[in-house]
Amino acid sequence: MKRMSMSLFVAACLVLSGTAWTAEPETNVNVTKSENGASVQGTSKVTATIVGIDAATRTVTLKTRSGKVIELEVTDEVRNFDQLAVGDTVKVAYHESLSLSLLDKKSEASRTESQSAERSVPGAKPGGTVGREVTVIADVVAVNAKTQMVMLKGPKGDTIDLRVEDPERLKRVKKGDQIKAVYTEALAVSVEPATTK
Fold this sequence. Notes:
Shape: elongated
Oligomer: single chain
Largest sheet: 11 strands, mixed
């Protein structure tokens, strides 16, 4: 059994990244291509059952469907700890997406970020959602057809190499173009009451 001390949200992130429950998440990935871009979206889900609660230490013991057990110390920022009960089901869903598109009009390289968070209402089961969206407009500073690499320069002058797998798409990209990248991620944690038999 592993033991961790963190908020429910951070714990859920670790669960989905494989640190806590390797090979547990149910994952779905979709790739969509359009005339001037492409996007990748992925969702991972984990379900576990509460098998123990220590109110004095705010520790919850969870067991996954495959039988893996983990203890989480739930911080005070997680509202409604006293609503948890043995047998409740904890569901975690993590969604991530990245879309890249070639811009028609030039603008200044930029980066914007927005965040959102929502906790459960007082008296309900613990849970909530957190999300983030980052939008970057970057300049194409080099295109290498042989290696299928495009070098992008961001608003702070940092560069990144991006591999373009499709040679036909690569032909449409040239030095001086701009790329808009939108990255989003969202994490939702919910607790469902134990079912009575």
